[in-house]
Specification:
- The complex is a heterodimer of chains A (96) and B (816).
- Chain A has 96 residues and is mainly α.
- Helix content of chain A is 54%, strand content 0%.
- In chain A, helix 2 packs antiparallel against helix 3.
- The two termini of chain A are 35 Å apart.
- By secondary structure, chain B is an all-alpha fold.
- In chain B, 68% of the residues lie in helices and 0% in strands.
- In chain B, helix 32 crosses helix 34 and helix 35 crosses helix 37.
- The longest helix of chain B has 20 residues.
- The N and C termini of chain B lie far apart (145 Å).
- Classes of the chains: A mainly alpha (96), B mainly alpha (816).
Chain lengths: 96, 816
């Protein structure tokens, strides 16, 4: 969704940094093994590959989402160890 | 109410005696119980006990208290039930055991399993099973059984409870080592702790991200047992986590702690979407308020996407943006918020969007987020200009104006914001960043808005700013053609053709030059002078030594003995200061054009002048593709004094020597060049190799091959592809000879495609530098041509020496 996040770049990245990040991301998600990931990486690269593209994104982006649930992509599902307490409280129907 | 009046008011508790008998009270209490009004029934029973004390009243009270406790338990108010129960047990000691049994579920729910375990410790097997079933559906923490003093430590239930409690703590606190769950294998399937075993296995699989195993274990947990209550929470923590149900607070808290912010955000997004769809501004604002903390701490890009989407949906559902802006921490003062609002408004009405962008510009430049000049502000201004409808009438209609004049009047008077002046926006953009994109928009604007003169002027300004761009030239060509300015249009056409490809310009120069030369040869000197005048307008005419050549032509074109001849002669002499160059140019023109050369003053050129003149002549005539006859004495003199040549002259002489088919000149010039420090030193190595390739001797050929390979390697490193190509072309001529070398016991040379090491290259350069002798170069081109014809033998086309060697040991005579 956010091309900078997809390539793991800072918003001030220059052409060289964008290209290096793109090549690095390709190694992790080659098209034959991860077609969907490759598509996202390619789209991100096309959005950031030169100064004009980055300028356009900065001034006239991001495109709004029609479905807000797409924002969930930015919140990865985590699995934290929290000890027995919260689990037992849920069993007992008690909050903190 | 004042305290005095409160004191005067009769208390609810202090009731007057009703005078009712027990039977009437019974009917009243039973009626209340039937209506599920246990609290009122208790109050009535207490009143009855006070007014009509006795066994019957006591029984009624017990009945009411029992119903009340059951009611509290049904609502999950176990602590309240226990508190009431302890009062009743104290008040009615005869009913202690009855109430103890009644309060057992409350005890379990609030952690008090002691009573149940006390009974379980001594119960009959059937009763034990029943009590275990109750425990299974009410025990919320195995540690209660694990640490009870009621059961002995060796009791199997206590052992199992301990194992389950420890494993539950371990699996929720960190990764389990391999085989850790083996400790639970001893718990039998029918045990009340079997569901806990399955829950622990499910949790272990959850943290190992083995979602299939999680689901498999959850499905085996009986639904009526306590561990089954965690199944929905675990399912929600795994993908696809799209359950629409809103969890109870305790479960929501668990999900948030274990799963991170994702689940909470998902619930909040669902609430927001629901509120927006229902156009409920209040609920939507509440949802946004709850979500803001999650997004405030998120990366800037995510925050922007969220806000852009929020504004977009807010406007789409016609909700008032004012309250929303008040919620946002920076609100109106944040330029980025203003920018997002402007982008949102573009979907609605261009005029609103334009003003929003204007507010953004003002805010962003004031805060320094946007520089007052440069590509960024230019793009914004260009974007604002592009918001205008293409049709001028549509603009006037939107603003409810009758004419452009009225529009400008209103802008000048301040009734309309200045941002509605489209050309002003574009001119600001041009001032900020005069790139082709902006010029194009300006030209299009004036073209669309009926001002072609202004459009043409802008195109010409564009051409001046970007002379390499073809587009403005073509525009001016069309514009001038439209208004009948044909001459100007033709000039534009010529310029446009020039810009198509540099070869076009070079070809025109050559054609004009050839035309002038032909006219001189034909004696049409006036026409030749015309051509020369046109030639002098060409850009190339002032490059390098072209002026010298043109001056020579002009001199030749001046009528012999005419008034023009002397001035032209002087111009030539002054323009070409080097007498060697003068002589070479005139001699070459005389031979080519077959005209008489005017006599030149006698000169005794220095070595420097010889080298300079020869180098420049080679460069000039190579570029002109004209033959250059050079006296042998001049060549020899140049070869003997090459140490006085500059590096640039050596390069020119290397190339010139090959072009003149004088490899000796190239050989010597390259030798001197190799002794210099020059970033293009590999070109001397290349020239050396090319010169040596002309020699027939084996040793020269070997040296040539080595030099060419080394030159190619160095050129490749320097990315000089032209030199790489030249070296490869020269090396290709060596391949046919390898086979015959092998016949004479000479090892085949290493593959010419293999790269060379730096040591090998340095050795080759050192060897070439140390060479003192001059190889035997072949005779001139004319003689070589003859030899080539005579040497046409069947098969090979090999050097003579090789054939002599081949046949020297054969017993029969040579067939030819």
């Amino acid at each position: 969704m956010d091309p900078f996040a997809v390539l793991g770049l800072d918003e001030n990245a220059d052409d060289e940094a964008v290209r290096a990040a793109y090549l690095h991301a390709l190694r992790l998600a080659p098209p034959d093994r991860d077609p969907e990931g490759f598509r996202r990486i390619r789209e991100a690269y096309e959005a950031l590959r030169d100064v004009e593209s980055r300028l356009t994104l900065r001034l006239f982006g991001p495109a709004p989402l029609n479905d807000l649930n797409e924002l969930l992509e930015a919140f990865p599902a985590e699995r934290h160890y929290v000890g027995p307490g919260p689990w037992l409280q849920a069993l007992q129907g008690r909050s903190r | 109410m004042s305290k005095r009046r409160q004191a005067q008011r009769p208390s609810r508790r202090t009731r007057q005696p009703s005078g009712l008998d027990v039977a009437t009270w019974r009917r009243r209490i039973e009626s209340l119980l039937t209506q599920d009004k246990s609290r009122e029934a208790v109050e009535a029973a207490k009143q009855c006990l006070k007014e009509c004390p006795g066994v019957e009243a006591e029984e009624l009270a017990i009945q009411a208290y029992t119903a009340r406790i059951l009611s509290l338990q049904a609502h999950g108010m176990h602590q309240e039930a226990q508190a009431l129960g302890s009062i009743v047990r104290e008040r009615f000691p005869a009913y202690q055991s009855q109430f103890a049994l009644l309060l057992q579920p409350s005890g379990l729910a609030t952690g008090d399993v002691e009573a149940l375990l006390t009974e379980l410790a001594t119960a009959e097997p059937a009763r034990q099973r029943e009590l275990e079933r109750r425990l299974a559906s009410t025990l919320t923490d195995p540690a209660m059984v694990a640490h009870t003093a009621v059961l002995p430590d060796a009791h199997p239930l206590k052992g199992m409870a301990r194992a389950v409690s420890e494993m539950f703590t371990a699996v929720t606190s960190g990764p389990l080592p391999a085989g850790a769950l083996v400790a639970l294998d001893a718990i039998p399937r029918q045990s009340l702790f079997a569901p806990w075993k399955l829950l622990i296995r499910a949790l272990d699989a959850f943290y190992r991200h083995d979602d299939a195993a999680v689901l498999a274990n959850l499905e085996r947990i009986p639904a009526e047992t306590v561990p089954a209550r965690l199944a929905p929470a675990l399912r929600r923590l795994m993908p696809p986590d799209d359950s629409p149900a809103v969890p109870v607070p305790a479960v929501a808290a668990l999900i948030e702690q274990v799963g991170g912010p994702r689940s909470l955000v998902r619930t909040q997004l669902a609430q927001l979407t629901q509120a927006l769809t229902a156009r409920d501004g209040r609920k939507a604002l509440a949802a946004v308020r709850s979500m803001l903390p999650s997004f405030q701490s998120a990366p800037a890009a995510l925050r922007r996407t969220f806000l852009a989407s929020l504004f977009h949906l807010w406007y789409r559902y016609n909700l008032s943006p004012e309250q929303l802006l008040k919620l946002l921490p920076s609100g109106h003062s944040d330029p980025d918020i203003l920018r997002l609002i402007a982008l949102t408004l573009e979907h609605l009405e261009w005029a609103f969007a334009l003003q929003a962008w204007d507010r953004y510009l003002t805010s962003a430049t004031a805060t320094g987020q946007l520089a007052s000049t440069g590509p960024e502000i230019a793009r914004v201004l260009l974007h604002m200009a592009q918001l205008f409808p293409p049709d001028r009438e549509a603009v006037l209609d939107t603003l409810e104006l009758d004419s452009e004049q009225q529009l400008h009047r209103q802008i000048r008077s301040g009734r309309l914001p200045a941002c509605f002046d489209r050309p002003a926006l574009l001119e600001r953009a041009r001032a900020a960043d005069p790139v082709a994109q902006v010029f194009r928009a300006l030209v299009a604007h004036y073209e669309q808005w009926g001002d072609p003169k202004r459009a043409e002027a802008e195109a010409e300004a564009w051409h001046r700013a970007h002379p390499q761009d073809l587009e403005p030239v073509l525009y001016v060509l069309r514009a001038t053609e439209r208004r009948g300015a044909i001459r100007k249009a033709l000039n534009c056409l010529a310029e446009a053709i020039d810009r198509v490809h540099p070869e076009v310009r070079q070809s025109r120069f050559r054609l004009l030059l050839a035309g002038a030369e032909r006219r001189i040869k034909e004696g049409k000197l006036a026409l030749a002078l015309d051509d020369l005048r046109r030639l002098e307008q060409e850009t190339r005419a002032s490059e390098g030594d072209y002026p010298a050549y043109l001056l020579a032509l002009r001199w030749l074109a001046a009528l012999p003995g005419s008034d023009m001849a002397v001035p032209q002669a002087e111009a030539f002499a002054n323009g070409v200061a080097n007498p060697v160059l003068q002589s070479l140019i005139l001699e070459a023109l005389g031979a080519t054009l077959k005209v008489a050369i005017p006599p030149l003053p006698k000169a005794n050129p220095s070595h420097e002048q010889v080298l300079d003149g020869l180098a420049r002549a080679c460069t000039l005539f190579r570029a002109l593709d004209r033959p250059l006859p050079v006296p042998a004495a001049l060549l020899k003199r140049a070869e003997q004094h090459l140490e006085q040549a500059s590096t640039a002259q050596l390069h020119a002489l290397c190339t010139g020597g090959l072009w003149l088919e004088r490899p000796a000149l190239t050989y010597h010039a390259a030798g001197h060049g190799l002794g210099r420090t020059d970033p293009l030193g590999y070109r001397f190595l290349l020239a050396r190799g090319q010169a040596l390739a002309a020699c027939q001797a084996y040793e020269a050929q070997d040296r040539a091959r080595s030099c060419l390979r080394a030159a190619r390697e160095l050129a490749s490193r320097a990315r000089d592809m032209e030199a790489v190509r030249d070296a490869s072309t020269a090396l290709d001529t060596f391949e046919g000879l390898d086979m015959f070398r092998a016949m004479f016991g000479r090892p085949l040379e290493p593959d010419t495609e293999a790269s060379m090491s730096q040591e090998e290259i340095a050795q080759i350069i050192a060897q070439e530098r140390s060479r003192r002798g001059t190889p035997q170069f072949p005779a001139t081109a004319a003689r070589r041509k003859t030899r080539r014809t005579a040497r046409r033998r069947p098969g090979f086309g090999l050097p003579d020496e090789l054939f002599e060697d081949l046949f020297s040991f054969m017993p029969f005579e040579r067939p030819f």
